[in-house]
Amino acid sequence: MNDKLKAGDKIRKSDEEWRRSLAPDQYRIARKKGTEPAFTGKYYNMHDAGTYECACCGRQLFDSETKYDSGSGWPSFFAPIEPDAIIESQDRSHGMVRTEVVCARCDAHLGHVFPDGPQPTGLRYCINSASLSFRNAEK
Fold first, then answer.
1. Is 126 a catalytic residue?
2. The CA-based dihedral angle spanning residues 118, 111, 103, 16, taken in that order and rounded to the nearest 10 degrees
3. 3-class DSSP state for residue 123?
4. What are the structural domain ranges in the chain?
5. DSSP 3-state assignment of 20?
6. Gyration radius of the chain over CA positions
7. Helix ranges, the chain (H)
8. How far apart are CA 23 and CA 127, in angstroms?
9. What CATH superfamily is the domain 38-136?
10. Is the sign of the CA dihedral 127, 12, 58, 3 positive or negative?
């Protein structure tokens, strides 16, 4: 599958279309910029080999080889599968200044990135499980 985002490939749906197509927690987190409680998401402690995709549009976002245990309670990765898979922007909500991470294809809220991760990038992409789906590696 060619997963490169091309001009015009942006997925646009109405709020009601997103609401109908997603589970309530997925909608609240991915479309309304919510956060799941730490240590509750189905992928935070997952160690299977495969690819993490956007739960809203299926865009490949993170490879399991970049996943690590950050101790934060959310799935954490040190790099996206491709730099253009995500978009980063400043988030000033909740009295903090953070860097929000969204899916480049559909603008789903994924989580945040912090500069306290492991090498080789030094980054921690802290991602909500509800914003992800998982595809096991081919055996």
1. yes
2. 170
3. coil
4. 38-136
5. helix
6. 14
7. 15-21, 24-26
8. 17
9. Peptide methionine sulfoxide reductase. (2.170.150.20)
10. negative
Enclosing H/E stretch for 119: none
Model-level pTM?
A: 0.91
Please give the distance of CA 128 from its chain centroid, rounded to a whole number: 6
Measured CA to CA, the distance from residue 123 to residue 101 in angstroms comes to 12
CA nearest 112: which of 29, 40, 55? Answer: 29
Token pair for 129? 């499980």
Along the 139 residues of the chain, how does pLDDT read in single tens digits? 344 545 458 999 999 999 999 999 999 999 999 999 999 999 999 999 999 999 999 999 999 999 999 999 999 999 999 999 999 999 888 888 899 999 999 999 999 999 999 999 999 999 999 999 999 997 6
* Token duo for residue 4: 């490169």
Token code pair at residue 82? 């491709």
Q: How many CA atoms lie within 13 A of 137 on its CB side?
A: 9
* Residue 112 identity: H
Are 124 and 70 in contact, with CB atoms under 8 Å apart?
yes
- From 54, 56, 57, 126, active-site residue: 126
